[in-house]
Amino acid sequence: MKTVVKWLAGSIFVILVITLGWRMLSQDDAYKMRQVKAVATSNNHHILDFYPHISQSKRPRDPYSFPIPLGAVGPNTNLYSGPNQYPFFCMTLDSGLGLPEVDNHDGDGVSVYDPQQKLLGYSKDCGVKSRIEYYTIDTPLVPRKLTDNEDVSGFSGPLFRVEQGTINRFIYTIIVPITPLDIPHRNTSSLWNKRLIYQFNGGSGIGYRQGRQTAWKVMKRQAQQLLDGYAIISSSGNKTSYTYNMLLAEDTARRVKKQFVSLYGEPLYTVGIGGSGGGLAQYLIAQNSTGILDGLLPLYSYPDMITQTTYALDCDLLNNYFTFRADDKKIWRNWDRRRLIEGMNAINDFPQRAGFLQPLNQLMAGFVPTFPEGNSECINGYFGLSAFINNPKQGFLRAFFAESVVEKTNWSYWQDMQHILGKDQQGFGRSTWDNMGVQYGLNALNNGEISFDDFIDINHNIGSWKPQNDMAQEQIVTPFGTNLPLWLSLWGNENITEPAPAAPAARHQGNIDAMHAAYRSGQVFIGNITLPIIDARHYLENELDMHHMSASFYSRLRINKALGHTQNHIIWVAHKDHDPTQAAFAMMDKWLLAITEHTPEGILNAKPKELQDTCFDSDGKVHASGSTVFNGKWNKQKEGACQSRFPMFSTSRIESGAPWAGDIFKCHLMSINSAIDKGIYAAHNMTVDMRARLQATFPHGVCNYDVPDMGRPKDI
């Protein structure tokens, strides 16, 4: 009786949520439609030859004559990264730069009105005229724009010239320290220490928008460096919230730097800094090209986006299994047990921000509702990512555009990358994601931590993401505003393949040609980088933050594979209460200024002797440093002092038997008999029945990780 009452109560609640949510969504869409139209045309622009690898392709001469004059709009088509993407939403107003410039009267793009609400025209490329403003930095390190009433010529505090405009349709920012005497001259900066910082930023993006960049935020991130005399440059095109197309990011960064150099001259060096996606962007731009960066300070980094999607897109599949499909759901309420399969950290009794969604969806599915009794990085860090980057019907940018545009656009990371990875026969961007033959939980099986029955149940039921043309928009309503969405198709369960009575749920086959293109175009970090690198991060595993420590070591393993050493790659890990960034800048400055010969050998010879792998305690004291402090499972060595102080976790693919470098996007398959003969299930005596169950669960075979990635071209 109690169960029936709960079910009725839950059903009534769901009905109310749906009614209120759709009403609010409809109102919001109507508001947006009054403001936005979008263009569906494209331009034919040169794109680099990727063969055999983009690092070997010569960049074309830039026909644009830098610097951009003040009051003029910069180039609105990129130089070598392919055609402009449309639709494209302007965000100049969000960035405090006013309305975008009218560039057509054909109804393409964003409507532009004068103060009397008269329609002036439309902007499809979102240009703004280059302009200069002045800022100071108040104590404690807070930027402030000077008002028209302040006498800039006699200003006594720290003073900075800020130039903003658009390059490649993205908003660029240049900041230099000046004195009042420099004000009349656009290209003078008597306080600049001749060191340049390129600021990169992170986030998960699928294109289709210009991005927001404010001078205040750029300055806030590097306030101390500005006071120390550095110049800063940045662009919204170098924030991965707006695109993960690293060719476009490189194209944009090269031009932004060219704008700076055309005004102020060549710096002593250019050092990159940025976290998360801003870290991986540095790795890839430095790997793929020259002339932009001389040193890297990647923070909270990953090797590349393709690598991250490989295991991140497993998260919702596993959560769907644990919540809805497991034969014994009770055993997966122990979050320590989930960690065995997911690899990333999971903690019992750790609260979930949206934990109420689980019983809500269980009620709708006809199960007895239960609240989660823990949390995982898969949920706390990656919840919603599968819908955002992988589902072309979802795309959380839909609200920006008119319904007619929404219906014609595929909203996904793969679509953002279509000019590089290609399109399938249905017109969808080709996906590299693959889980054919992946044996989820294989390590736990061999370690005796799960039973053979558990192993079969997981792999029979987990399935994969449906083909893009079969996907549906997630059922999400927002009765309390977009900051509290209610997911009525939790874990994307309606977009996951289902098992048949006698057959496992189908797996997904990634596109080999797309994988080859990803490698050749430099979207994958292969480790071929000789520049100075200090890879720094806070230890956030106990926060279940998505920026897991192991990602730095995926990059290290790839560098070692490419170069035969990792002497140019330093890793720092700090307690969350200590920020090592200032020390990293100081060490990088010492390293770069000591370089007399810009060769791999010369770079290593200039490396400061005291610069080593290091971990820091909360008070900033060095806990341990040296070449062995991070040793552990990832390199099959005895655990080092930093590894024991800051334990590292893995991923679902590593726990499936894949190598720690994370560079197997599509594995070669072998038969079950071959797997048994190789000792893949060494801890178990395979009976005839067990063999038959494995064969039924993996009819196409299982991964053979003793051979390289099928997706990597043989000539790379």
* Global geometry: globular
Largest sheet: 12 strands, mixed
Q: How are strands sequenced across the largest beta sheet?
A: 4-3-5-6-8-7-9-10-15-16-17-18
Helical amount: 25-40%
Low-confidence stretches: 1-44
Strand content: 5-15%
Number of helices: 22
- Total strands: the figure is 20
Radius of gyration: 26 Å
Give the oligomeric state.
single chain
Q: Which structural class do the helices and strands define? A: alpha/beta
Mean pLDDT: 92
- Terminal Cα span: 65 Å
Model description:
It is globular and about 85 Å long. Residues 1-44 have low confidence and may be disordered. Helix 15 runs parallel beside helix 22. The longest helix has 34 residues, at 2-35. The protein has a 12-stranded mixed beta sheet with strand order 4-3-5-6-8-7-9-10-15-16-17-18, sandwiched between helices. A two-stranded antiparallel ribbon has the order 1-2. Strands 11-12 form a two-stranded antiparallel sheet. It has 716 residues and is of the alpha/beta class. 31% of the residues lie in helices and 14% in strands. A hairpin with a 2-residue loop joins strand 5 (159-167) and strand 6. It contains 22 helices and 20 strands.
